[in-house]
Amino acid sequence: MLKKGLVMVLSIILITIIAGCGTFVGSGGTSNGSGSTADQAKPTQLTKIKVSIPSASVETTDLYVAEKEGYFADAGLDVEQVTASSGPELLASLTGGSVQFANMGSTTLIQAVMKGMPLQGVSVTSDGVPYYLTISSKWAKAKGITVNSSPEQVAAAMKGARVGITQPGSSTDILLRVFLGNYNVSVDKDLTELSVGDANACVAALANDRVDAFVMWAPAPQLAAAEDGAIAWNLNQVPEFSGMLFANYVTTQKYIQENPGVVQKFTNALAKAAQFTLQHPDDAFNIVKQTMPDIDPTQLKFGFDDHLALMKDGITPSSQAYEKALKVYEFVNKGPVNVTLEQAFYLNATK
Q1: What is the SS3 assignment for 260?
Q2: Strand 131-135 relative to strand 213-217: parallel, antiparallel, unpaired?
Q3: d(CA 295, CA 271)
């Protein structure tokens, strides 16, 4: 009887030991051989966040790569992308609390901070302007404009034109005013500026002869070039725009204070995505193609390559690039803008 009792006790202990070990086998595998220590370390419950972007664009390649390559999931984040047609709409979604982060131009961020909005950039994606002045084939032919025309020639050709933007106060509006103003062409006096809407609306407006040109990010200009024979003139050819800090991810100061860990995880994932894109551009482009399957790959590649040339090796804003962004906005503001780099950016997240 004692022997049977001892056997039963030892059996229970053995079962308990096996159960306690779970599926662990060796030093990193699982009972079915498909797991790893890294897999087991992944967060089981993801933090949900929303990121507002200005429509599908090569400008947000890092966002697509971070999602596809699993950098967000590895960081414990479940990221949902929502679209807004312009900088003001991006600001509204951010300050209204419907999203936690937004991708916007530095001029929009500086303008918001100057007005007292409690916002800060947390990651930089490019130094240089990833926008184009897209000119209809009809207007370009009449004015003798090509993709190789000088900034002076293009600015002069815009006199009398109908130029589409997303809406007043947006990056499309600001860039147009700064570019033309530097060559003594007034948006208010020398041409007609029209609020058209998002990228798709701009392409349609050009095709339907409602505008002679529009300002927009890729791939809309390349799509117009394919459909209409339009000239997609790269605004980064303007000296004032070359090398300026431009595209950023932004959040509210309140969100930074309440969720510093989430902010850091988000920026770390973006940094990994940027590094992946620079090291594996072909793989990154394939991800972009999957994200925008309706765009002709040849035209999409033009926009992607231009974006790649502007990408930073890292996500930290440089003081030199920020100073160029300040000068651009000072032109629009018609006076000094007292917004420091530290006020505009939460630099702890970019290190």
Answers
A1: helix
A2: antiparallel
A3: 26
Angle, alpha carbons 311-79-110 (nearest 5°): 50
Give the long-range contacts of residues 150-158, CB within 8 A, separation 24 or more.
151/179, 151/182, 151/183, 151/237, 151/238, 151/239, 152/183, 154/233, 155/179, 155/180, 155/182, 155/183, 155/185, 156/183, 156/185, 158/133, 158/185, 158/190, 158/191, 158/213
For the segment 56-87, what is each residue's pLDDT rounded down to a tens digit? 888 899 999 999 999 999 999 999 999 886 77
Question: What six digits make up the tokens of 97?
Answer: 């609390």
CA dist 116 to 98, 110, 125, 134, 252, Å?
Answer: 20, 10, 24, 34, 12
Give the number of C-alpha atoms closer than 13 A to the C-alpha of residue 178, restricted to the C-beta side: 28
The H or E element spanning position 110 is helix 106-114
pLDDT for the residue numbered 247: 82
The angle subtended at Cα 64 by Cα 310 and Cα 35, nearest 5°, is 130
Cβ neighbours of residue 46 closer than 8 Å, sequence gap 6 or more = 73, 76, 77, 78
pTM check: above 0.85: no
Q: What is the pLDDT of residue 83?
A: 86
Confidence of residue 212 (pLDDT cuts 50, 70, 90): very high
Verify cis geometry, omega within 30 degrees of 0, for the bond prior to 219. yes
For residue 200, give every residue at least 6 positions away whose Cβ sits within 8 Å of its Cβ, in sequence order, or none. 55, 220
Q: What is the pLDDT of residue 20?
A: 43
Region 109-131 average pLDDT: 91
DSSP annotation of 47: E
Q: What is the pLDDT of residues 254-273, one digit of tens each?
A: 999 999 999 999 999 999 99
Query: Hey, what are 60's tokens?
Result: 């947000």
Q: What is the mean pLDDT of the chain?
A: 85
E strand or H helix at 80: strand 77-83
- The two tokens of residue 143 are 């004015």
